[in-house]
Known about the structure:
The protein is of the alpha/beta class. The protein folds into 2 domains: 28-370, Alkaline Phosphatase, subunit A, CATH 3.40.720.10; 377-478, Arylsulfatase, C-terminal domain (2-Layer Sandwich). Helix content is 25%, strand content 19%. The chain is built from 11 helices and 20 strands. It has helices spanning 2-15, 53-61, 75-84, 112-118, 194-197, 200-215, 246-268, 308-311, 338-346, 361-364, 444-461, and strands at 28-34, 63-65, 68-69, 103-104, 122-128, 146-150, 179-183, 186-191, 220-225, 275-281, 315-318, 327-329, 333-334, 375-380, 384-390, 393-396, 399-403, 418-422, 425-428, 477-478. The chain has a 10-stranded mixed β-sheet with strand order 8-7-6-5-9-1-10-11-2-12, sandwiched between helices. Strands 14-15-16-19 form a 4-stranded antiparallel β-sheet, covered by helices on one side. Strands 3-13 form a two-stranded parallel sheet. A hairpin with a 2-residue loop joins strand 15 (384-390) and strand 16. Helix 6 (200-215) runs parallel beside helix 7.
Amino acid sequence: MYTLLKAFIFTVYLSSGVLFAQSDKKPNVIIILMDDMGYGDTEPYGMTGIPTPNFNKIAAQGTRFTHFNVGQPVCTASRASLLTGSYPNRIGMAGVLLPGADRALNPKEKTIAAMLKDAGYDTAMLGKWHLGNKPPYMPIHYGFDSFYGIPYSHDVWPVTWDSIRVTNPKDIRYDWPAVPVYDGDKIVDSIITHKRASSLTAELTEKAVKFINAEKKKPFFLYLAHPMPHAPLVPSDRFKGKSGMGLFGDVIMELDWSLGEIMKALDENGIAENTILIVTSDNGPWLHFGDNAGSAGGFKEGKSTAFDGGTRVPFIIRWPSKVTAGDVNSSLITSMDILPTIAAATGSKLPVERIDGLNFLPAWTGNDKTGPRELYYYYYDGNSLRAIRYKNWKLVFAHTSNSYTGPHGRGGEPGKIIKEEEPMGLYDIAHDPGERYNVLDLYPVVVEKLKKYAQEARNDLGDGLQHIEPTNVRPAATVK
């Protein structure tokens, strides 16, 4: 229990205010979250052939993290961990919500938005929520002053991948409604065609710029959660065909343009210096879409797997004069760590309930390159502990996993996701980032150490693989 105790003591120390000396003006905070954007989908992380000048610019002006992992490799769970600083299974938000879901993020959980609102910030969310499908479980009930966007992914509709109405009653999509567009708690539009979906990136960007222009004189928090590059890929007419690398390249170029518009708005309003700007993704790429999917950057597998292709994604932070420009940081960091670090940077009060994130402000500002995190638990498929990371070591437990080694799709049609039995394996991530070489038999002492850490997690959060019930979790909201 040493590691858990260490994390608890560190969190208490942070909340005491010792680590933060507040400036006269609190920094603005913007988080831009892409959907299914893989580690290798932009030039700063190795993409070739698709120009991303604005991703390049923020990387040059900020710090790029290379070992950033999300809470779980799927939409709902990942977003829950980012906004609450907790493992998603701790708060009942593992997996993904679909229409008719009987649960939502519990409004008792304190989000980044609620934390900053309490600290005097104006808050707004734009884009994909995916933590509740209907009022009163929309963002304005979780600390956001305003919300415009969709409750879940834009492929959750009664339409096939080639934009034809689903007519087979056995298809899960048959009874799904058109994707509702919300303004606060009110449905103001719906999305049922690729053409309408293709306007989302520009529409959300325009609203983000308007929010920045209106809020320039007071501290604000903007959470822009783009629905792309999640399939189906629907770039606007302005970008369609522009990349020369198909729809995926076009979508990435449009997202790069969007990032550029945000940075330009900050510059024009004279607030770039005092704005924490974060760009990241909710999970790895949906690889079975083939040429319509992104790149895991050489890591194993992708979305919906506990391999690094599913959990390790881009994470870039720019905060001029505070964050070192053009730096690269290889610290192990997770989406849970964003909330407590923003709390430290803004002098905000942490949630009363226990969280799992750690304060990375010294690592963000370059004062401590190593960061405070040594452990990360790869939970997936409800509450199954599939792997554990300790420093450069990753121990994978035997489990049945999704795999993209089956036939890939083409032209927007998905391929086949197959199931594979994964044996227990130990991987040295420093020398084997692709998790190809199992060195389990070579390092028995390391294996036993990681097993002990894993048992700590099981005693705390449980483990579906071993039929161990959790002891320190909180329920999601029940939707009636």
